[in-house]
Amino acid sequence: MAKAKQNTASLVRGLITDTVEGLGYELWDVEYVKDGAFWYLRITIDSEKGIDIDDCERVHRAIDPIIDEADPIEDQYYLEVSSPGIERELRTTEHLKRYIGSKVCVKLFTALDGQKQFVGELLSCDDGSITVENGGEKKIERKAVSRITLYYDYDNEPDGEIDTEGER
Predict the structure, then answer these.
(1) pTM over 0.70
(2) What does the pLDDT read at residue 155?
(3) Given a cut of 70, is residue 76 above it in pLDDT?
(4) In this structure, how many other beta carbons lie within 10 angstroms of the beta carbon of residue 82?
(5) Kind of pairing, strands 38-46 and 137-141?
(6) Which residues neighbour 155 within 8 Å (Cβ) at sequence distance 6 or greater?
(7) Quick check: 130 and 140 in contact, CB under 8 A?
């Protein structure tokens, strides 16, 4: 069943990529997931200037009729459009390569060196593994990783202000 839902996300990605990019946004991610009793089609967009609610609404209005017309989803679902956020999940090799040199939080399915979570600088990545500097270089197989996100140190933000522009 998970494979079918992954295929749904890939199909929707193919349907909407040109439209999203035509509006001046990057299609960061597409997920089709069950959360509680409901199904959600989650579209995540990004841009150099950042994303606000008006951007999300603009993309939602543009892609909703495309998805309705193609009708690729049998289940009832909610369509959500959002930004990847400051602690964005890095799911693809392309995401990871973009943030080499950045601080990341890596969560593992099982402990490595007694830890299930590492925070450190992302040094390298490929389709099979990542390398993180965390008191020494740690090479981690991608199949051992449950989640990788950018790490943001809220305690070191000057005057409690969060930089929503992010670094690229």
Answers:
(1) yes
(2) 83
(3) yes
(4) 17
(5) unpaired
(6) none
(7) yes
